[in-house]
């Protein structure tokens, strides 16, 4: 088994909202606390997260370069002086994609979903990913883009050229020269409180494989990870990533119900939002620790009490059914994106 570098060099090609959240999480001195540690059967085995030596970021526009650099400077100004060797960050335009990929151990594809082919079909980027003695890892965080689509961009008539360079006769599958992994983190990666769903390009490869362990250890910096089949990713992403928007709506809705409406008995918006967010965080901690949601409800609500009265309104309005339907629709929409992009 090939030894993994203890300190990784990574590249992020495309750095929008999610990419910036990943970057901020990787740079954050705060270590994540795996809140699902009581569910060992559900989580990938990650003993020690990797350290990151440097991060190369590429974006499309000069304005985005300034935006990312400002985010990095803000983090560096608040970092602890006791933190050992923080990653070095370089930010440039996408004409530096090939250089960034060449110098990285792990390349994270964070562009818009419709733009992945423009990046991966570039010959210089292909060479950077495939023409190496050490197999690189390409991690896609793009919604609705399958591993097969990514492989297709890396596989062309020049595959034999890569084989000749590497003196690997008979290898025509680019997967042999580049491990492709799909990862579904969420926006909470910024605070190292994401959960990341991971799926490898070859489900027959065990989780203990070097490149799989490498990706799991990398994203363990941002929170717990879970390895699933790619066929499960659309549904998993709906609750791992998209659902943050649903929960945010619920937090805001609960806070609105407690606002001061002019009678002096309600809360300020700031207080109501903070209390609502903390209550949701506490609830998630109970469930993550193994308590069934129905048991949490039973412990909080008593017959004829105020909580029961509130639950009755939720049931009458169909809140639970609406949330469940939203998750299903989200998964369906992601599936449609995948199908549309393969045509």
From TrEMBL:
Q: Supply the alphabetized keyword list.
A: Oxidoreductase
Signal peptide coordinates: none
Query: What Pfam families does the database record attribute to this sequence?
Result: P5CR_dimer (PF14748)
Query: What InterPro entries does this protein's entry cite?
Result: 6-PGluconate_DH-like_C_sf, NAD(P)-bd_dom_sf, P5CR-like_CS, P5CR_dimer, Pyrroline-COOH_reductase
Pinpoint the Pyrroline-5-carboxylate reductase dimerisation domain residues.
230-334
A single GO molecular function term of this UniProt record = pyrroline-5-carboxylate reductase activity
Q: Which GO terms describe its biological process?
A: L-proline biosynthetic process
Q: Which PANTHER family does the record cross-reference, listed alphabetically?
A: PYRROLINE-5-CARBOXYLATE REDUCTASE, PYRROLINE-5-CARBOXYLATE REDUCTASE 3
Q: Which family does it belong to?
A: Belongs to the pyrroline-5-carboxylate reductase family.
- HAMAP family in the record: P5C_reductase (MF_01925)
UniProt protein name: Pyrroline-5-carboxylate reductase dimerisation domain-containing protein
């Amino acid at each position: 088994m090939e030894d993994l570098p203890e300190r990784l060099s990574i590249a992020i090609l495309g750095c929008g909202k999610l990419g910036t959240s990943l970057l901020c999480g990787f740079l954050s001195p705060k270590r994540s606390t795996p809140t699902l540690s009581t569910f060992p059967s559900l989580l990938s085995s990650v003993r020690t997260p990797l350290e990151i030596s440097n991060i190369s970021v590429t974006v499309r526009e000069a304005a985005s370069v300034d935006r990312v650099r400002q985010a990095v400077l803000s983090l560096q100004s608040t970092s602890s002086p006791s933190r050992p060797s923080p990653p070095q960050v370089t930010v440039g335009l996408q004409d530096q994609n090939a250089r960034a990929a060449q110098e990285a151990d792990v390349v994270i594809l964070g562009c818009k979903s419709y733009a992945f082919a423009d990046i991966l079909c570039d010959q210089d980027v292909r060479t950077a990913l495939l023409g190496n003695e050490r197999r690189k890892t390409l991690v896609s965080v793009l919604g609705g883009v399958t591993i097969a689509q990514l492989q297709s961009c890396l596989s062309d008539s020049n595959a034999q050229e890569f084989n000749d360079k590497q003196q690997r006769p008979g290898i025509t599958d680019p997967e042999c020269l580049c491990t492709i992994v799909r990862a579904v983190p969420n926006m909470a990666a910024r605070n190292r409180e994401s959960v990341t769903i991971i799926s490898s390009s070859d489900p027959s490869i065990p989780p203990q494989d070097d490149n799989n362990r490498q990706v799991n250890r990398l994203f363990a910096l941002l929170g717990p990870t879970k390895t699933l089949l790619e066929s499960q990713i659309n549904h998993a992403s709906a609750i791992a990533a998209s659902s943050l928007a649903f929960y945010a709506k619920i937090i805001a809705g609960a806070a609105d119900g407690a606002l001061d409406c002019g009678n002096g008995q309600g809360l300020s918006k700031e207080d109501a939002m903070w209390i609502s967010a903390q209550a949701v965080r506490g609830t998630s901690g109970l469930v993550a620790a193994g308590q069934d949601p129905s048991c949490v409800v039973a412990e909080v609500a008593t017959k004829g009490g105020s909580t029961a009265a509130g639950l009755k309104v939720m049931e009458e309005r169909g809140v639970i059914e609406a949330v469940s339907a939203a998750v299903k629709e989200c998964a369906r929409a992601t599936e449609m994106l995948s199908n549309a992009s393969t045509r």
